[in-house]
Design goal:
This protein is α+β, with helices and mostly antiparallel strands. Helix content is about 20%, strand content about 45%. The chain is built from 2 helices and 6 strands; from the N terminus they run αββαββββ. Strand 5 and strand 6 form a beta hairpin. The longest helix is centred in the middle third of the chain and has 19 residues. The radius of gyration is 14 Å and the shape is globular. This is Esterase.
């Protein structure tokens, strides 16, 4: 099983773009627009969760043996702290735990003024490819 092009996934649909991927940090941006709004014109909490899990999953994938392993979200929580109607949000993920079978990530989503929009924690499973 190979990883699909990110443009062919929900990452592409929502306009998520990865800015940085290292062993200690992953940074991605997402536009706040009609595609990421809930019906009342605010950033949808689910879109924030997609952004957070994407950062954690790509961060884990970057740290594993990509030939024999794959990464998939196992658990996620999110606290939505501030509404946002337009612009860009930036998710910065840092690993809290780098285990053999799971990794845990802290993800902070901020607006252009670096105000917190959402805080998330995501556990990612590391599985052997079949």
């Amino acid at each position: 099983m190979q990883m699909k092009s990110l443009d062919q996934t929900i990452i592409g649909v929502l306009g998520i773009e990865f800015q940085e991927t290292s062993d200690e940090r992953v940074v991605a941006t997402m536009p706040v627009n009609a595609k990421t709004h809930q019906p009342f014109g605010l950033l949808h909490g689910g879109a924030s969760v997609v952004l957070a899990e994407s950062v954690a999953s790509i961060g884990t994938w970057n740290l594993i043996d990509q030939e024999t392993e794959l990464a998939a979200g196992l658990e996620i929580n999110a606290n939505h702290l501030r509404g946002k109607r337009d612009g860009i949000v930036t998710a910065t993920g840092t690993p809290v735990h780098k285990g053999r079978t799971t990794m845990v990530w802290d993800i902070r989503i901020t607006d252009e003024e670096e105000k917190l929009v959402c805080i998330s924690r995501c556990t990612v499973a590391i599985m052997k490819k079949q």
